Amino acid sequence: MLARHYPGPSQVAYAAKACFTPTLARHLNAAGVGLDVVSGGEMAVAREAGFDPARVHLHGNNKSLDELRAALEYGIGRIVVDNLDELEWLEALVAERNQRNRVFGRNPVSPIAIWLRLTPVLDVDTHAYRQTGHAGSKFGLPITTFPQARVSTPGSLREGPAAQALARARESPWLNVVGLHTHLGSQIFDPAPYAVAIERMLDFAAAHDFIPAELSPGGGWGVPYTPEDPAPPVDEWIVAVSRAVIERYRAQGWDTPCLIVEPGRWLIAPAAVALYRVGTRKTAADGTGYVAVDGGLADNPRPALYGARYAAFLANRATEPAGPPVTVVGRFCESSDVLVRDAGLPEPRPGDLLATPVAGAYQLSMASRYNLAPTPVALWLEEGVVERMAEEARQRLARSEGRVHAALELGGGFP
What we know:
Helices cover 30% and strands 20% of the residues. It is an alpha/beta fold. The strands form 3 sheets. An 8-stranded parallel barrel has the order 1-2-3-4-5-7-8-9, surrounded by 6 helices. α4 packs across α5 (84-103) and α7 (192-207) runs parallel beside α8 (234-252).
């Protein structure tokens, strides 16, 4: 799809944070897509799945020194620098590797290829917790010196953290700035902000006489979770991004860059359905009808985190007419443990199978062992073959360092 609308080199990079297991990693690698990772654990899974490190990008606003060292040892394709501290650490690590090579008579190391993550100071229409490119974002290097500015002025583009990072990286013998990156947030259904973000990134580049050979406007295109949600085709996003990049590069007289888009949710969310077993039922004093299931907050924290809405149906009685609306709740000790409000279902009975579609993204990847309840089994279904994935996330976490190992020893991990 990207190649249909963009004439230059391009890459689709899957955002592993949405959902990542060894089985999924193997399929993604076979498909030849790029990969965005944000931790040592995700990087380890990518390596085990055989990903060419040239196709892997390391993101994150607080990468540890161990993660940066692991990325250098892996030969990772791009490190996406988020802040000035990280830039300093990375420069020192590459210099250290070069010194070690000299001591042992090895070839000198090449400068490490990096992108700078820019904050375009841009609000988008999504939940506040899903915004990542606004003025108060914890992510990225602001392209302006004015914290509350919504439009950067030519003068402000030459100052501030982004300008400092670009100047330092370009002066360093150990770093090679090959591109710019931004990410506006997720569940975005309007392509217009992407064009604005690209404009601000390239205004910044032009102000510093820097021509990005690679440009990544991130991901975040939305998917509908309920019949009421908007469902604009993904082509709208790809066309808007492609057009904005082509027009701005041509206007500057620059060669067309490699365009990298980074979908996560859009690729994986519709691929999964969560199944629950109905347990108890009750009516509250205010008349609310509750139906409790054997999962909830621990396997899907999204409704509690930012009011995410889902549809639901009874998989074993899907053709029966709906009764009065009910609220589907989980089994966990929180009043926020609500999966679906006002669900139109046939009158649920204990033992029914309740299904919530569009369950592939940010559910098991954000799961916990709250209340030490049993964890769900994850299955991979393809062309009549079923593969159990129950232990994969535990294995993934076991490859991480430090605090993750302690958590596994104390809490047992989670699949």
